[in-house]
Structure formats: structure tokens, C-alpha cells
Specification:
The chain is mainly α. It contains four helices and two strands. α2 packs across α3.
Length: 91
């Protein structure tokens, strides 16, 4: 094996190590936007019930292509909806 081969192998190894670190770091970031299925699961309800909330304007959503792409829901909006929807009984 030549010095050039060793240098090339070391460079590839460094690139692979860097790429692996980036993948691991990205996996540690929790998603802020959830698709319909994950948002429904987060709220412990079915897709139909969630769609109904969206259609009634109770939950805002994100669509990358208006009217065509799937709904994406901000987890912060879901948390606000939960807080707003809580019922407490006194007595």
C-alpha cells in the first residue's frame, strides 16, 4: 500500500466519521412538526377527529404546497390546544 493509498483511506475515514456524527446529532433533535398520524397519536385521538379540528379552524397547520401537501402540525400548537381544552371540576 502506498502513502497515497493510506492518505486516501484516512480521508475517507474522516469523512465517514464526520457524516456519522452529523446523523447522530440530527437524530437527537426532536421534530417540531408532526404529520397527521403522529399528531393524532400525540393527542390520543384518531385521524378523523384531528382532521375535524383542523377543518373547524381549532388547530393551525403547515402545508408546503397549499391544498396539496399533507398537513403538518406544530407540537407547540398541539400543546396549546391541550391546555385550552382541559376541563377542571371544582368541589
Amino acid at each position: 500500500m502506498t502513502d497515497t493509498d493510506r492518505e486516501a483511506i484516512a480521508e475517507v475515514r474522516d469523512l465517514a466519521t464526520h457524516a456519522l456524527r452529523r446523523v447522530k446529532a440530527a437524530a437527537e433533535i426532536p421534530p417540531r412538526l408532526l404529520d397527521l398520524a403522529d399528531a393524532a397519536r400525540y393527542l390520543s385521538m384518531g385521524d378523523k377527529a384531528l382532521r375535524s379540528l383542523i377543518q373547524r379552524g381549532e388547530l393551525p397547520f403547515v402545508q408546503t404546497i397549499a391544498g396539496r401537501s399533507p398537513y403538518l402540525l406544530d407540537i407547540r400548537d398541539l400543546d396549546r390546544w391541550i391546555e385550552k381544552s382541559k376541563i377542571s371540576h371544582s368541589g
